[in-house]
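PROTEIN DATA CARD
Card holder: XdhC family protein
Chain length: 231
Origin: Neorhizobium turbinariae
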Amino acid sequence: MQLDLLKRLNAARKSRQAAVVVSDLASDEVRLILEGEPVAGPLGDEVGKAFRSGKAGTVEVEGKNLFLNVHLPPPRIVVIGAVHISQALARMAPVAGYDLTIIDPRTAFATEERFEGVELIADWPEDVLKDRPLDAYTALAAVTHDPKIDDFPLSEALRSGCFYVGALGSRKTHAKRVERLKALGRSEAEIARISAPIGLDIGAASPAEIALATLAQIVQAFRRREFVTAG
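Structure generated from the sequence above:
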């Protein structure tokens, strides 16, 4: 791989930006495509599939055999709220391949005893997200039911383009949340991305079932996310 291409790839990985290295198996020609760059024709379709699956492989495009090597940032879940749902989700997420962080300023809930082995930050989301910003490879789940804790990270998740944004609460609760998020500067189109009530509709009742429904919805959102690859 050419040195300048390798530098670009390393820079993309450092900034948590997805990339595909396209190698022509006949000529050894190599091309780097970053997520969001327009790619015309059939190659754009194949690159989109590669970004979505995260799997490397050989494809035939317009008579050429190409090897697509995909570099995706590790997907992660940020949970706002150290509650029972979070405890269950913290056990399930690693099995599905997701790193998970829980943020909650309420030290009575955010304890090592309740979340042993889990990355737990007992601080306000406003302060945490300054140094650990959200991005397109982050799913955010807000489950405290407390607007003082949930609203800011929800607004940041929409602004940052998180691939999934979910919030616990009834439709009546969400209607009030919508007005607060508008006051924070979020548009109706952005707010419409929030999954509320959170999780796939499986009739979940217990915290573990809600966590399962939420994780399933996160995986669905990650695998169905859209890419700009045609141009």
